[in-house]
Amino acid sequence: MDGRRRLRAALTALAAVILLSGGQTALARIKLVTLPVRERVEIQLENPNATLVEEERVVTLLQGTNSIDFSWSNTAIDKGTIQFRVVKMPMRDKRQGDHPSLVTAEGKVEMIRVINVAYPPDENALVWEVFAEEPVAARVRISYLIANLRRSFDYRAVAERDESTLTLRDYIRLDNFSGEEFGDSGIWAGFGPYFHREIGLNEAKQLLLNKFTMVPIKKTYTFDWQNGPPVPNEPEQRYVEMRYVLKNDKEHKMGEFPLQYGKVRIFQKDAHGGEAFTGEDWGKLTPIDDEMKLYLGLARDVQVKRQRADSTREAVRGNLFNQDVVLKYEVQNFKPDALTLDIQEDINRLRDEIFGAKDRDAEWKVEAEGTSIGLPQTERKDSRTAIFHVPLEPAPKGEAKVTLLTVTVHLKLLNEW
Amino acid sequence: MRNRNIQLSALLGLLAVAGLVAPAWGRNVDLATVPPRESVQLTIYNSEDLTLVREVRSLTLKKGVNMIQYSWADTLIDPTSVEIRPLEKEDQIEVLDTTFPGDKPQHLVWHIESKLEGQVKFQVTYFTSGLSWTADYVLTADQAEKTMSLDGYVQVYNNSGEDYENAQVRLVVGVVNLVEKIQELARRGLIPPAEGPAAAPVQAKARRMAMAGAVARAEVAQEALGRPAEIIKEGLSEYFIYTIEGEHTVPNRWSQRMVSFQARQVGFEILYRIRPHQYGERPVRFFMLKNDAEHKLGTTPLPDGLVRVFRDNGRDGLNFLGQQKVTYVPIKADIELNVGTDDEVVWERKVMSVERSNFTFEQLPPLQAQRPPQVVGWDQTSNLREEIRNYKNKPIRAEVRHVIAGDIELKAEGAKLHDFHTVEFTYDIPAVDAPGHKFGWVYSYTEHLGRNAKQNSIRMPQ
Predict the structure, then answer these.
(1) Which DSSP string corresponds to B115-138?
(2) Quick check: B286 and B278 in contact, CB under 8 A?
(3) Which one, of A355, A313, A348, A417, lies nearest residue B450 by Cα?
(4) Nearest by CB to A99, which of B227, B315, B359?
(5) Shortest CA distance to A329 belongs to which of A220, A221, A223?
């Protein structure tokens, strides 16, 4: 720690001389005070809800009882979490007369023992009573949870021009509003590299955890009738949304650790060796083998109109019926690139759209007859979500008009009443 | 021994023995001797704001009636609980009465008749509020998470208004019944002081300095031990009493934390619990052990307290895993510590489809020829898929529980019923580098709905 440091937490070893006289105790208040400096600091950020700080100091202990005073100001240290641990505890073999509570299962005795802790009122301080069997310079770690020393994660994704791969930089950011500064500190997030940095007061530090290069990505175009953004004055349209999908696995050159929740800033390389900012999104916590989907915005060059072309009831018995629903999508791709459009339907909400809200899940299937795409292109994501994958040709070059692709899907809603 | 606020005074005056009337002592001018405390014992309860204080003091009595004044300004003593009794020569000493003067708060006078003249040890007992204790625990797992060390602590807080020096401290684990709160009894009938009782800042600072010295002095006994004071545990009826070895000074507004027990090399198991209804959508990791001899514990129940869980990070340091309040753990009972979610264990559940069948129809009124029979009962079968993925470098055990309300028939291999509407699956999932670390299973259940519902429970066909 340099001369600019504003040390807030202080450790004081008081070498007290205690006199016993005639059964009355008297304390000589003349003390030799040593101020053990921090030799090392470890900041443990593994727990997202609490930051653990460990200070390593060499404390000189006299033979007998030592009072070690630890105080802090302007920092939010959780008093109840403060621990005093000897790093390499000197041990000896047990002797006759050792109290059984001191002897370990291996027949050893720790030569430095914390006897108790006293907490004075109205002060951010505590006093350890530490007993040493012989004079020793003990390397100790004082650990505590501290507030306002927080971690967060953010990412920088730079896509190649063809958007087939990207480079993802994963950063950890440390915001230090704890009221304390930390000199050369070890910083550990629980994964990724182990850092050594100085963390100043009110300082934020961004550290590169990992750089994933040439990460294959999938760019998706999704038309979601129920959840997509509506197009003004076009009741039969919704905007098509674009996303990058990154799979956090080895095959996609990642999969080393779960990607934490954080902001992802997305750039794309341009033709001039530079980068253009194309948007940002919050990346959710992405365990290994899961996908991180990053919303890019709206694809204005892909237009989709949806109509319910048919809705026919087929009585089964009594008031029980099946309903044949044909959905018609008119799709135009004005982009010069081929792409696959994902048309997503929430079948429960489609059913509610037709019959009014019901308190039961829809029972449904896709009928081959009346569906213009092959059944393999239809996906049952779960009991209520259907996705239809529609390949789109690029917009023709020159004067040729963009073709209008009509896709029909025949859904059968079963056993409704 | 110093008393800050509590004083026992033998009033020197000529007493009229007969009828104890009109003692010849002035109303505003008193002469008193102040016998100090010789010893004090604090028995602190944690279920109520209650401490039983036993003081021993020596009084020199004269023959006849002695007037003993006892006062406790600015403390939280219940006046109805204050008692005095001789510890010796009891057949020659009689406490005749106790008077609480109307013009003096926190003050009483005993008339003690003595047939002897000389020094006698007396015990004064009373209840006070403001002293309390809590337990807490520090658990440190080894790096491999196979064994742990578990340190138990007790922390004594003194906000009673009185300094207790060189006191024997006893802590009671257990629930006692009180019909009135001690703090209310202590405050009842108090005449508020014209000036606030709080010391001026300079005085308060001076007092803190003095108390620091007092605490240091109290450690003399422990220094002689050279080890943490042992806490002797003893069962008594429905209670456990922890007696802290030696004597301790607990100045007013200070607290002191002492080691209650230390257990090393304690084995434990790790269980991942998946209970969306209880813990949310992510697997939650538990450290599981028992308060028994096999786990190097079991000598005493564990009082309610906060458990802080750490793990050795292999670099001489710790990781903080979490903290949890535990409620009273009897001997041989399970200890389950929730150490939070784990990003390396993933669980997913999907309802893949639903199907309805077995419809029941009924012609509902009004009976109109054109109105068809209505569906009044049906069965709905849900087909589900679940998957647990383990990315840890060691196998894990996962326990999945789902609450499925209604009249349910469940078809699920390997499932068992936890209770009438909760199904449980338990699986051992291999480590990440072993085949099967992504483990999936499918099952289905049929819910009888409407008129088809006959009961509210899960059945599993054999």
Answers:
(1) SS-EEEEEEEEEEESSEEEEEEEE
(2) no
(3) A417
(4) B227
(5) A223
Inter-chain touch A380–B220, beta carbons under 8 Å: no
Inform me whether the C-beta atom of residue B213 falls under 8 Å from chain A C-beta atoms: yes
> Using an 8 Å Cβ cutoff, are B61 and B93 in contact?
yes
Cα–Cα distance for residue pair A279/A277, rounded to 1 Å: 6
**Of A261, A227, A222, A229, nearest to A245 (Cα)?**
A222
Residue B201 touches chain A, beta carbons under 8 Å: no
ipTM for the complex shown: 0.87
Please tell me if residue B387 touches chain A, with a CB cutoff of 8 Å.
Answer: no
The domain spans of chain A are 10-144, 149-299, 302-416
CA distance B144 to chain A (A): 15
Q: How far is A190 from A261, CA to CA, in rounded Å?
A: 15
For range A109-118, the mean pLDDT: 92
Residues with Cβ within 8 Å of A308's Cβ and at least 6 positions away in sequence, in order, are A325, A326, A327, A328, A353, A354
Q: Which residues contact A313 (CB under 8 A, 6 or more apart)?
A: A321, A322, A323
Contact B322 A116 (CB under 8 A): no
Q: Is B427 on the interface with A (CB under 8 A)?
A: no
DSSP letter for B214, please.
H
Higher pLDDT, A238 or B228: A238
Q: Is the pLDDT of residue A224 over 90?
A: yes
Taking an 8 Å cut-off on Cβ atoms, the answer to whether A127 and B212 are in contact is: yes
Residue B143 touches chain A, beta carbons under 8 Å:
no
pLDDT at A28 over 50: no
A–B interface: beta-carbon pairs under 8 A: 193
CB contact under 8 A, B389 and A317: no
Instruction: State pTM to two decimals.
Output: 0.84
User: Stretch B298-318: mean pLDDT, rounded?
Assistant: 91
